[in-house]
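Ticket #4471: structure output looks truncated?

Reporter: J.K.
Steps to reproduce: submitted the chain below (107 residues) through the standard prediction queue, then opened the result file.
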Amino acid sequence: MKKEMKKYTLGEIKDQFLGQDGTKERDIYEYELKMEILGDLIKQTRKERNLTQEQLGELIGVQKAQISRLENHTGNVTLSTILKVFSALKAKIKLQVELEGNKFQIA
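Returned output as attached by the reporter:
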């Protein structure tokens, strides 16, 4: 008789290898993943708008290197810069902050 292989959910795998939700290791992983997705989204949108990194940088007043760091998720980037980038790319921005059950939303 063939033994059936145990199946794991993505959440179970994350818990086992990255730590439970709320642990430092898991928070770092989740943050880095979000920054990678954000950088990829910015790069894709910039290319769809037929802009170079230099042109996008000029639109928001930063050097090409900062756009490159943002797209490649290296280095520190401020929320202000991210908001300027999306504004220059003519993207709708929706920001939601939750503190102790209270929601604050900027649309």
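Triage note (M.O.): checked the attachment and the full token line is present. The chain has one domain: 10-106.
Status: closed, working as intended.
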